[in-house]
Amino acid sequence: MTPLSRTFRAAALLLGASLAAQGTPTLLVDVEALAPDNPGAFSQPGRMSGLTWGSYLDFAADADGTGSELWRTDGTAAVTWLHAELQPGALGSWPGRPARAGAQLLLAATQTEAPAQPIGREPFALPVMACAEPVGNPCSLDPATAPLARGDGTPSLGDATFALHLDAAPSSIALLVLGDPVDVALAPCELRVANITPPLVLLTDANGAASVPLPIPAAPAFAGLRVGAQWAVLETGGPLLGFAAASNGVDLVLQSQCAA
Question: How many CB atoms neighbour CB 122 within 10 A?
Fold first, then answer.
């Protein structure tokens, strides 16, 4: 066996092992079957956003009767639905890959005929789902214990179980602040919160973990509200003002879990 053929054989074995580890793909939902006009057709799902809103994902699919439009799923057949029909009728708007900008979901879509305004392909904005997105990078003298912040759960309206979590150095004093989300360089760290609330002081446990419950009010007035969160962990000679390490930020959008 030549060296080249051995390389191909090894690559094939690795690919086979990788596919086996991933398990057997299963059909999530037959989107086309949800439209009864042409049950033999196929939906051609694609352009997955790559972004999740809590436990939801947006994607484009072509269902008979609507054309290619924006769909939403939580990974189950029971909770997969047409999220936005930007070009009513069978033609479809052919939405592009969505991206979050603040509390909005931005995407390109096409409107060419009534009842939509025939404006061609233009940018559109929709409300995002509730999300807690880690942003930026931590800074610390020791990369192994650099403080990492994340949300536990989804900040959807009325969710009493949502919390903010920190992984950092064990048995350390940590300060959590909330405020307006920003992106300001404070070399070598990043400031991710402005107009902050008084800090909440905690002590990380023996594993370096700390968690703060942050129940989300059910009031509709909070829908679309953005909140930034960031931790500072006391560290002698640390890069943040000489006495602390800083976590990455967490950008929260409060919203109904099934925002239209």
Answer: 11
